[in-house]
Specification:
The complex is a heterodimer. Chain A is mainly alpha-helical. In chain A, helix 5 crosses helix 6 and helix 5 packs parallel to helix 7. The radius of gyration of chain A is 20 Å and the shape is globular. Chain A is about 75% helix and about 0% strand. The chains are: A mainly alpha, B mainly alpha. Chains A and B meet through helix 7, helix 8 and helix 14 of A and helix 6, helix 7 and helix 13 of B.
Chain lengths: ~350, ~350
């Protein structure tokens, strides 16, 4: 389990490593791979490492191997997809609105996507699951649009965005709770929508989210340079020939789409999109391409830690990953708040 | 409606709040509010899976042992009473909290007080069987106090006036954290999960006479203490320096105010779960009508807070019959737009 609590460790690494983003990001990626393998072994039935490896090279011979391939592997893969998706989404939003408090869960995207995805799966259970991500995307857009609309008053100030986001999210959460009482699902699938969880997710979910993440994240990374230009300020960016408004809108849409795709498969997981970019910037600083890459690795590590702790700490009981990220992310956000105020 | 919204502690307008009271206005508002509350109470009593005519309801209040009358007395009356008590508690503690912190966005739910109370109640009753017999009200007080103090410290309250935004963000994050912890605890007790989840949204759906008698003494005590504080709170609203200059012990007023907040909101959470937004919005609505003197704001908060919760409870039964939606959901739907309105009025600064 110790390997899984490791994302804190790079903070304390030597200054040489901290100055070299490549080493740092590579190191964290290696750590994430190790954590993934460890995560495969942890669960309701602990599985010896030898059997984990055997399963990974295709040995379907044992009960344990089936557990690894059918139950654990999809979750680990989803941790990667969702961690990358949420972190990149948060990083882009913070860059675009130049607001350290922006994140898919703060500005209403997560809960909006959650309501939409949940409504679809409850009201039209026969429809194809592939519809969930686009519908969640629409919900995320509505959420972000409402927050922006209500927060807009001669510009959308960072703090008003955050305050209005809280209120709009509260409404969406109420709607989710209402749907939960109207259509009592089993407790577990309720918790997936309410708190974010990877419980019971299969390769179908991976296949659902993968195209979105695998297509959108590279696009964002290609656009990262334009995010740098936006960071210079609107006037400077426009002077450099950047179509400011259009770029901003494209990037925001990408951010909303990424977060919504994540919500579609994992429910409303909070704080990852908010804090992963902050941790990344502290670690590697610099240009958006570097910090977005670092943020995605941090996001993956956060998701792996959260999901593995949730699965392992009270096995066979399952604690949703979203609750664990809140317990880890909440204090970090409070720390950020104290620091920002100074 | 020409009275401007007077945000407590807004130093830009240091006018004596007592001057803004217009007595005839207050009487009219009070009478109307009482009428609304009365209608809500009677409506709440007549409403249910089996509608009972108001005439029967009125008779049942005093006597009778027909099935309808028994339903009214045993099932519906505690529920409506509990809604009134909890609503009054939350609204008054919201008003006090906004005064004590000189912050218009303060409220027991925003500042994590409600979720702090909830987490301790759930934690002790599920994890420490030895203490399971402890009165949940006392547990709620402990949690409410701990969470409220932590949030204030985190938001930098020690350094004097703290920006509403910082307080809100710190409080809401702390709330999220505490709610998550509570939900983790719920998962450990799968048998009760549905019920506890329901309680966590807040609502009076599980009311019984036991809950009413649990909260009643604290309500009486807390409301009496709040009224006694009214004058001191008015002085405090003039600004800390002014209050001090007029001979007030500012720290003591704040401490007593905070203690009353904890008693009122802790007791509410213990019986009805953490109901959102009532504590935040009722004081603002009341101030909009009658100005900002606590001598009239607090009593009207009692009436309007009760009315809002009673109607939220009624609405919760209309949304999705025959199922009940937790009234906390309804209060969030009503409260969020008002919160957005208040947030838009804030000068944006962290």
């Amino acid at each position: 389990m110790t390997a899984n609590v490791a994302p804190a460790r790079p903070v304390g690494t030597t200054s040489t490593a901290a100055r070299n983003p490549r080493v740092l990001i590579g190191g964290m990626a290696g750590l994430a791979v190790v954590a993934s393998v460890v995560s495969l072994a942890i669960g309701a039935t602990p599985i010896p490492m030898s059997q984990v490896f055997a399963a990974l090279v295709g040995d379907r011979g044992s009960e344990a191997a089936n557990i690894v391939l059918d139950f654990q592997l999809p979750r680990v893969l989803l941790c990667w997809l969702v961690g990358i998706g949420l972190a990149v989404s948060g990083g882009v939003m913070q860059g675009v609105v130049r607001n350290p408090l922006a994140a898919p869960d703060i500005i209403g995207v997560t809960k909006g996507a959650g309501v939409a995805g949940m409504t679809l799966s409850l009201l039209f259970p026969t429809l194809s699951a592939a519809l969930v991500p686009p519908v969640a995307f629409a919900g995320g857009l509505v959420g972000a649009g409402l927050v922006y609309l209500f927060a807009y008053r001669r510009g959308a100030s960072p703090v008003r965005l955050a305050l209005v986001g809280i209120a709009v999210s509260a409404v969406f959460e109420s709607v989710i709770r209402f749907l939960l009482t109207k259509y009592p699902l089993d407790v577990n699938s309720s918790l997936i929508w309410l708190t974010g969880s990877l419980f019971g997710r299969s390769m179908n979910s991976v296949a659902l989210a993968a195209p979105w993440i695998l297509v959108l994240v590279p696009i964002v990374l290609i656009l990262a340079r334009r995010l740098d230009v936006l960071g210079l300020g609107d006037d400077m960016a426009a002077g450099l020939g950047e179509p400011v408004e259009r770029t901003r809108r494209i990037l925001l849409l990408l951010g909303v789409a990424l977060a919504s795709a994540c919500v579609a498969v994992s429910g409303t997981i909070g704080f990852v999109g908010l804090i992963a970019p902050h941790i990344a910037r502290r670690l590697v600083g610099g240009r958006n391409l570097t910090s977005l890459l670092a943020a995605s690795v941090v996001g993956v590590l956060l998701m792996l830690v959260a999901d593995t702790i949730g699965r392992g700490i009270a096995a066979p009981l399952e604690i949703p990953a979203g609750l664990v990220t809140a317990v880890i992310g909440g204090p970090y956000f409070l720390y950020l708040l104290v620091k920002l105020g100074k | 409606m020409s009275t401007r919204v007077e945000l407590t502690g807004n130093r830009a307008e240091p006018a004596d709040p007592r001057r803004r009271v217009r007595h005839r206005h207050v009487v009219v508002v009070a009478v109307v509010a009482l009428g609304v509350l009365l209608v809500g109470v009677l409506w709440g009593l007549s409403l249910g899976s089996q509608p009972i005519p108001w005439s029967t309801v009125l008779r049942a209040l005093f006597a009778g042992d027909s099935p309808d009358e028994v339903i009214v007395r045993v099932v519906r009356m505690p529920r409506v009473l509990l809604a009134t008590l909890v609503g009054a508690n939350l609204a008054v503690s919201g008003a006090l909290m906004q005064g004590v912190t000189a912050n218009p966005l303060a409220a027991p739910d925003i500042m994590g007080v409600n979720s702090g109370a909830a987490v301790v109640v759930v934690a002790v009753t599920t994890m420490i069987p030895a203490l399971a017999g402890a009165p949940s009200v006392l547990l709620a007080f402990v949690g409410a106090a701990a969470a409220g103090i932590t949030v204030m410290v985190l938001a930098g309250m020690g350094a004097g006036r703290v920006s509403p935004v910082r307080l809100t963000l710190a409080g809401v994050t702390a709330s999220t954290l505490l709610v998550s912890l509570t939900q983790v605890l719920v998962i450990f007790r799968e048998n009760d999960a549905q019920r506890v989840l329901f309680w966590l949204v807040g609502g009076v759906n599980f009311a019984n006479w036991n809950a009413v008698t649990t909260v009643l003494p604290w309500t009486v005590l807390g409301l009496a203490a709040a009224m006694a504080l009214a004058r001191a709170m008015n002085l405090l609203a003039l600004g800390e320096d002014m209050a001090r200059g007029l001979g007030q012990n500012v720290e003591r007023t704040r401490a007593v105010g905070a203690a009353v907040v904890i008693v009122l909101s802790g007791a509410s959470v213990a019986v009805a779960g953490p109901i959102a937004f009532v504590g935040l919005i009722v004081p603002h609505i009341v101030r909009r009508f009658v100005g900002s003197s606590y001598a009239v704001v607090l009593p009207l908060c009692v009436i309007l807070g009760a009315a809002l919760t009673v109607f939220a409870d009624i609405a919760s039964r209309f949304v999705n019959p025959p199922y009940e939606v937790p009234s906390g959901v309804v209060s969030a739907l009503i409260g969020a737009p008002i919160f957005i309105y208040l947030a838009r009025r804030q000068k944006a600064a962290l």
